[in-house]
Specification:
This protein has 320 residues and is an alpha/beta fold. It has helices at residues 13-23, 42-55, 78-81, 103-113, 126-134, 164-168, 170-177, 199-208, 211-218, 221-231, 239-248, 308-319, and strands at residues 3-9, 28-35, 62-64, 117-121, 142-148, 183-186, 253-259, 261-263, 274-276, 300-306. The strands form 2 sheets. The chain has an 8-stranded mixed beta sheet, sandwiched between helices. The structure holds calcium ion.
Length: 320
């Protein structure tokens, strides 16, 4: 049976690869794509998503969403993805334009039309927080919510405390993580080290020799350089595609456990930190005030380890 996905994205180069994996996956129907301000400004993210869909031969509807975080100033990531978010490849303008409906309205409607759909979030959670504000009962109409975001019990990629998607709009993340949505959290650290596309993996992708294979490497050229500067890793870091791999095949997440998660919003040093309650202190009444947002909601599923060859194979399969 076909599984239905909705993808929320701030489309830069790793989002593009994740979109491609979903659009090319047999058995998956992507009902809609919503764009949020994040790695890229809204217009560039929209353009990148439409271009990627076109490359995949897909006419998936693309909806434009929120153009800034709930309370914070915009903070894009051209330094990591290139000025166009696509490795400065100067891709042509897409042939299609986005749908006229706002992303928040479109996603809300999609959850009524297709209750139980899988939501995959690849950017800051602003759009999703706005939808929840409109209709908190939404949580019962989302079957899975796979979130690329956070840095459970480790350092982040934008500050020592936080990963970009959560840091960018921590208030939105707090609303989503406190909503009771069935969240599966795929942190950024899962795309580091061995999970990077190594030089051998990159050569393998090139050898597949399809337009999508070359696109995957070309649009991430800037990421490869920035990744080396940031982490010392030689290779292409692909956080969104690793999250998409978990969405496509839950068996890729080989180590998981369920915990309450709080998002730090109070100060700049810890802004956007994903505080994971591994020792279940939230159950203790002494901590009830600090954990009041989440202690009565279902816990999140935290992914701690990936089947790395498995995630890479899902990528390779999408490129043929
Ligand atoms: Ca993203």
């Amino acid at each position: 049976m076909e599984r239905l996905f909705w993808i929320d994205t701030d489309t830069a180069s790793d989002d593009a690869v994740a979109l491609m994996m979903a659009l090319r996956s047999p058995g998956i129907h992507v009902v809609g794509v919503s764009i949020v301000s994040g790695n890229m400004p809204l217009t560039q993210g929209t353009r990148n998503a439409l271009y990627t869909a076109e490359l995949c031969g897909s006419d998936v509807p693309v909806y434009v969403g929120e153009d800034r975080p709930l309370l914070r100033a915009r903070a894009h990531a051209q330094w990591f993805h290139g000025e166009d978010g696509m490795g400065n490849q100067n891709y042509p303008a897409p042939k299609r334009t986005p749908e006229p409906t706002h992303a928040v309205d479109a996603f809300l409607q999609a959850t009524h039309d297709h209750p139980g759909l899988t939501l995959v979030t690849l950017g800051p959670l602003t759009n999703i927080a706005k939808v929840l504000e409109r209709d908190p009962a939404l949580v019962d109409r989302v079957g899975r919510c796979v979130v690329m975001g956070g840095n459970p019990c480790c350092e982040g990629n934008v500050t020592p405390a936080a990963e970009y998607n959560i840091w960018c709009d921590p208030e939105a993340a707090k609303a989503v993580f406190g909503s009771g949505m069935p969240i599966e959290m795929v942190g950024w650290q899962l795309s580091t080290g061995e999970a990077n596309l190594s030089e051998t993996d990159i050569a393998h992708v090139r050898s597949i020799d399809t337009p999508l294979a070359h696109f995957t490497i070309d649009c991430n050229a800037h990421v490869m350089a920035a990744n080396k500067t940031q982490t010392g890793d030689v290779g292409i870091s692909l956080p969104d595609p690793t999250a998409m791999a978990v969405a496509l095949d839950p068996a890729v997440a080989v180590e998981c456990s369920e915990h309450h998660v709080q998002i730090a919003c109070a100060d700049e040093l810890t802004r956007g930190m994903t505080v994971v309650d591994r020792l279940n202190v939230s159950a203790d009444d002494r901590n009830k005030d600090t954990w009041s947002d989440t202690r009565n909601t279902p816990p999140c599923r935290i992914v701690w380890a990936l089947d790395i060859p498995g995630w890479k194979q899902l990528l390779y399969d999408a490129l043929r």
